């Protein structure tokens, strides 16, 4: 089966956008210590650079489908690339941590629209019998982002400067803008349902409140953080009442009547808290405590990505053999153990053992993501598929941001507890943080155990 030329160019265009988004999500991690030094900050307090991007993605994704319908896919895709390029440029010229965080928010707004709107453009351009093949082509370059991101980021920091991890997006984005103007069809906006602005505001406030409570724990204190967490929980309760009364809510309460979706979303949230903090913590501990260069730290993440890509080939067959419940409960236990095992990191630890840990973590993390995502959506009715997918994407990005925020708060807490003046206290703080994040991930095993037996 072949595609006509205009459609082939569209696929490359959407694939380029997805590649930019996935590359940017991983390239920053190895550059955090260099950024901290340039901006006069502690490398242990740079998690806000990652949290701001992930949280913004979680906030914008639920509105992406409505925005594309209202203003047209071509116009919105142009805006997405422009925002991403502008945010990248602002990141590169940021002179303080606050400026960098604000620039990452701009970048996240563009990144959140790239894949959902691009996927919608592909859906409208291709007949249904070609859509699966088209989307497989689009998502393939996205797998390269996590593969080359950490190493490329480390290379740029070591041989150029950290600014280039953002500046590299500018020429790529400009090519994307020109190609979008020429090749993406200017389809007419589709009359869409009225946007649930009140529900969106309630969900947005809940996500921001919870994230700020975790991110700002040191500044707010326990009382202030608990107050924000309470406000976020209250906002969710108000949204639930609002959604039950509105005929077309952002996420219909009927979605949560599906048992596998409820369990899958909650399990996704808690499981990803641990899994998503490892790409943040590992390059940091390798550089701050073990003396690795940015390039070396980036290359150490390659085993994780390679194992992840390998397992994806056999994940479906393993799930079919063992079932979702057995797979997720057993794999969650192993994933928790692997996260906690990074507490063994010391300068004396053999390099082969460190690589083996990363390989096993990458394999179990990949299996976890595949099983969680499919069990969440497998029982949805066709008329709930779009809304359920959007909700899952939102939870995934929220969990990624919260995972890094929690790990950063725990790391800062242990560092303060054991004395910032002692050099060994930093390593001990990392070790304790790995153990805590492993225990937190373990909780999701109890959630997945509620899946139906034999499922």
Description:
This protein has 455 residues and is mostly helical. The protein is 79% helix and 0% strand. It is built from 19 helices and no strands. It has helices at 5-27, 32-39, 48-71, 73-92, 97-125, 128-159, 164-167, 169-183, 197-215, 217-245, 259-275, 278-288, 294-299, 302-312, 315-322, 324-341, 351-377, 385-417, 423-448. Helix 1 (5-27) packs across helix 6 (128-159), helix 9 (197-215) packs parallel to helix 18 and helix 11 (259-275) runs parallel beside helix 18. 49% of the residues are buried. The mean pLDDT is 85. Keywords: Cell membrane, Membrane, Transmembrane, Transmembrane helix, Transport. It is a multi-pass membrane protein. Its main location: membrane.
Topology:
Layout (H helix, E strand, L loop, with lengths): L4 H23 L4 H8 L8 H24 L1 H20 L4 H29 L2 H32 L4 H4 L1 H15 L13 H19 L1 H29 L13 H17 L2 H11 L5 H6 L2 H11 L2 H8 L1 H18 L9 H27 L7 H33 L5 H26 L7
Query: What integer value in Å does the Rg equal?
Result: 21 Å
Q: Helical proportion?
A: over 70%
Which ranges are low-confidence, i.e. pLDDT below 50, for 5 or more consecutive residues?
A: none
How large is the count of helical segments?
19
Identify the overall geometry: globular
Strands, total number: 0
**Quaternary status of these chains?**
single chain
Major β-sheet profile:
none
- Residue share in β-strands: under 5%
- Write the H/E string, N to C: HHHHHHHHHHHHHHHHHHH
Distance between the termini: 35 Å
Q: Look at the helices and sheets and give the structural class.
A: mainly alpha
The average pLDDT score comes to 85
């Amino acid at each position: 089966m072949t595609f006509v030329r205009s459609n082939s160019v569209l696929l490359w265009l959407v694939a380029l956008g997805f590649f930019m988004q996935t590359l940017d999500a991983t390239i920053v991690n190895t550059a955090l210590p260099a950024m901290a030094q340039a901006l006069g900050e502690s490398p242990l307090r740079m998690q806000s650079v990652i949290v701001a991007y992930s949280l913004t993605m979680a906030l914008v994704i639920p509105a992406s489908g409505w925005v594309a319908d209202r203003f047209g896919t071509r116009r919105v895709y142009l805006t997405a690339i422009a925002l991403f390029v502008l945010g990248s440029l602002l990141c590169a010229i940021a002179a303080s941590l606050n400026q960098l965080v604000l620039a990452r928010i701009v970048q996240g707004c563009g990144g959140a629209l790239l894949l959902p709107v691009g996927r919608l453009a592909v859906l409208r351009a291709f007949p249904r019998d070609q859509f699966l093949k088209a989307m497989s082509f689009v998502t393939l370059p996205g797998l390269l982002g996590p593969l080359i991101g950490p190493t490329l980021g480390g290379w740029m920091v070591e041989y150029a400067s950290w600014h280039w991890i953002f500046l590299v997006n500018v020429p790529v984005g400009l090519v994307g803008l020109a190609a979008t103007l020429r090749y993406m069809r200017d389809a007419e906006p589709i009359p869409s349902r009225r946007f649930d602005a009140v529900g969106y505001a309630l969900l947005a406030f809940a996500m921001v409140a919870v994230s700020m409570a975790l991110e700002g724990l040191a500044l707010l204190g326990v009382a202030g953080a608990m107050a924000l967490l309470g406000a976020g929980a209250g906002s969710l309760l108000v949204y639930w009442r609002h959604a039950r009364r509105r005929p077309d809510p952002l996420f219909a309460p009927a979605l949560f009547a599906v048992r596998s979706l409820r369990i899958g979303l909650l399990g996704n949230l808690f499981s990803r808290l641990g899994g998503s903090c490892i790409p943040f913590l590992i390059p940091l501990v390798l550089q701050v405590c073990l003396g690795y260069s940015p390039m070396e730290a980036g290359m150490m993440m390659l085993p994780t990505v390679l194992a992840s890509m390998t397992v994806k080939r056999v994940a479906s067959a393993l799930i079919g053999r063992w079932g979702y419940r057995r797979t997720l409960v057993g794999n969650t236990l192993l994933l928790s153990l692997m996260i906690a095992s990074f507490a063994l990191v010391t300068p004396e630890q053999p390099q082969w053992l460190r690589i083996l840990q990363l390989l096993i973590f990458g394999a179990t993390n990949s299996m976890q993501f595949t099983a969680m995502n499919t069990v969440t959506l497998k029982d949805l009715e066709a008329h709930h598929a779009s809304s359920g997918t959007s909700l899952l994407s939102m939870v995934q990005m929220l969990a990624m941001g919260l995972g890094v925020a929690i790990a950063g708060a725990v790391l800062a807490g242990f560092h303060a507890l054991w004395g910032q003046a002692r050099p060994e206290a930093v390593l001990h703080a990392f070790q304790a943080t790995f153990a805590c994040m492993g225990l937190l991930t373990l909780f999701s095993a109890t959630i997945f155990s509620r899946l139906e037996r034999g499922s």
